Amino acid sequence: MACFLSVNEFHLEREFIFKEIALLSSNGENVHVWILKPPCPFPHLTSVDRSDVSHTSNYKLGLAWEDGTVPYKSLPSIFELISREYKHWYVEDERSLKLIFRYKSLNVYCKCVYEHPMCAVQSVVLMYSKLHSSSKM
Fold it and tell me: What is the rounded average pLDDT of the residues 14-38?
């Protein structure tokens, strides 16, 4: 089975920190959203990173650094879980593809579908809608 996968992250000076992962099955029946807890407390970030995180929180993600319910160390398990059920992943852009595969080597087929900044849930719904409307033509 296939799925649409969207990720949102914080860009730090030396790395990307996943914040939100949203999944929508290709049949539109299953939706999963993971909002990750931060890997470290906000005060432990450099001043440049704190500034970038604050800007991203306020103007792009709408999620604060401290938000989240899923421990960050669960990230590998999340991708493993997704890869067991879904062998074809549609992701929104090359950036997402690189982030996912840089973090975890997976035996899945990925295709970039759409690129537009928005929350991860909106993104997977839009990808689903675009693919299903183009297949009806």
Answer: 91
pTM equals 0.76
Distance CA 5, CA 90 (A): 6
| Closest of 60, 72, 64 to residue 36, by C-alpha | 72
Can you tell me which residue has the tokens 């103007």? 59
The share of the chain scoring above pLDDT 90, in percent, equals 32
Distance of CA 62 to the CA centre of its chain: 14
The helix-helix angle for 75-85 and 94-103 (nearest 10°) equals: 110
pLDDT of residue 113: 57
d(CA 61, CA 22): 13
Phi, psi of 25 (to 5 degrees): -65, 155
CA 2/CA 124 separation, integer angstroms:
12
